[in-house]
Amino acid sequence: MKPPIILQNIPCTLVTGFLGSGKTTLINQLIATKPTGERWALLINEFGHIGIDGALLASSRDSHTTNDIAIREVSGGCICCTSQLPLQIALSRLLSDHHPKRLLIEPTGLAHPRELIQQLSAPHWQTALKMQAVITVLSALQWQQEKYRTHEGFQAHVRDADVLVINRYAQLSTDEKQALQAWVAKLNAQVFTIWAESNKQITTHEIDTSTGYSAALRAQLSKPSFVISKQQRVNIAEPYRAVVGLRPLSNSLTANTLHNPESNGDSKPDTSIELPYRYHEQQQDILLAGWRLPAEYVLDADNLQDWLLKLPNWQRIKGVVHTSHGWLQINFTPDSLSTKTVSAQADSRLEIILQASIEQEDATAVKIDWEVYDLELMAMML
User: Fold this and answer.
1) HSE-up of residue 228 (Cα within 13 Å, Cβ side)
2) Which of 86-100, 131-145, 317-331 is predicted least confidently?
């Protein structure tokens, strides 16, 4: 399938990073550098089926524009699936509908970056998109844990980066920073590294520190991608044979919901979902579940947070929920807990990602009785 794109050579930046690394924060920092009045586009890939980010942006699930940023979400799986159809449809519509001056793509942290790079290197995108440096976000707090830095999926993001932005490193000692640099160099000797944190910016590889962190990031938007240009020289017709670690996960559902009369294994269109709704699925060692509840369901905020933090081996929790403290946006990673008040939404949405173990040799299984979890969540309703 060749998408009918009229525009050509749209600068495009791929922002990758492992689950919970801080990609969304970096996207916001890049958007902050946007010239006034210039239209940009953002393609967000949420692995879950609920579409939480889109619910916060506007009432339209598929596409909306705010502050000269045209945004489209692809939910319910990884856009680097072998069919390529979700990516092609989303990109062609986003470009043809909004004619942006620049495109940013944020894939799910569960994606394998090599497969997405392979897709964006295909001939039918080479005239439509002008691929800039692949920016990868790495959390130093995650890297400090052996289960992350020895995990193939975590390493894969570093291997396929043109630019590496390292955040959350304030607690690292000088020796640990040197060890991190050596670890990065072993995986990708050519990567361009930026150390960045809100109260401290350190840049390497001849970035002028006087220009500031924002300017350093902005400069990466105009640098061509060595990783993608290298892939473009490969015969894209040859099947990719070297995928290891976290693979792109399928869109199929494998569980019941609070309300799912069809139960046909497909995620239903947003407008057809009758609330309350719950799904869950499992792929490899990943457990994913999500709930959508009517806006009039008000949950006890303190009990909800306690319940979420007690979930077994959770890796990511996102939501926008009507609570006793008002409408709250929830964004939890193992090293960052964030909640903030937001405006009233059409419904409450909550999504969780659990993992039995990041260490592949650990066969410990997380066994979940989802009916019990449903009852526990409903018991918090005021």
Assistant:
1) 25
2) 86-100
Pairing of strands 286-294, 314-323: unpaired
Per the prediction, the chain carries an average pLDDT of: 76
What residue type is assigned to position 280 of the chain?
A: H
What is the separation of C-alpha 303 from the centre of its chain, rounded to a whole number of angstroms?
27
Q: Find, among 81, 150, 76, the residue nearest to 112 by Cα.
A: 81
Domain segments of the chain as ranges: 10-232, 275-378
Cα dihedral value 48, 51, 56, 58, nearest 10 = 160
pLDDT of the residue at 24: 82
Could you tell me which residues come within 8 angstroms of residue 171 by beta carbon, excluding any fewer than 6 positions away? 140, 141, 144
Q: What is the mean pLDDT of residues 193-222?
A: 67
Q: Residue 382, class by beta-carbon neighbours within 10 Å (0-12 exposed, 13-18 middle, 19+ buried)?
A: exposed
Residues shown for the chain: 382
Contacts of 83 (CB under 8 A, 6+ apart): none
Task: Please tell me the class of the 275-378 domain.
Answer: alpha beta
Structure tokens at 91: 């990109």
Residue 82 identity: T
Beta strands 135-139 and 163-167 are parallel
Q: Which CATH number applies to 10-232: 3.40.50.720, 2.60.40.1910, 3.40.30.10, 3.40.50.300?
A: 3.40.50.300
Q: What is the C-alpha to C-alpha distance for residues 16 and 134, in angstroms, rounded to an integer? A: 7
DSSP state of 132: B
**366 and 312 in contact (C-beta within 8 Å)?**
yes
Q: Where are the strands (E) in 1-82, listed by range?
A: 10-17, 40-46, 63-66, 69-75
Rg of the Cα atoms in the chain? 21
For the beta carbon of residue 312, count every other beta carbon within 10 angstroms.
12
* Residue whose entry in the numeric block shows the structure tokens 């939890």: 332
- How much of the chain, in percent, has pLDDT values that exceed 70? 72
Closest CA to 270 of 248, 290, 284: 290
Place of tokens 């794109």: 5
CA distance 296 to 294: 5
- Rounded Cα gap, residues 213 and 67, in angstroms: 22
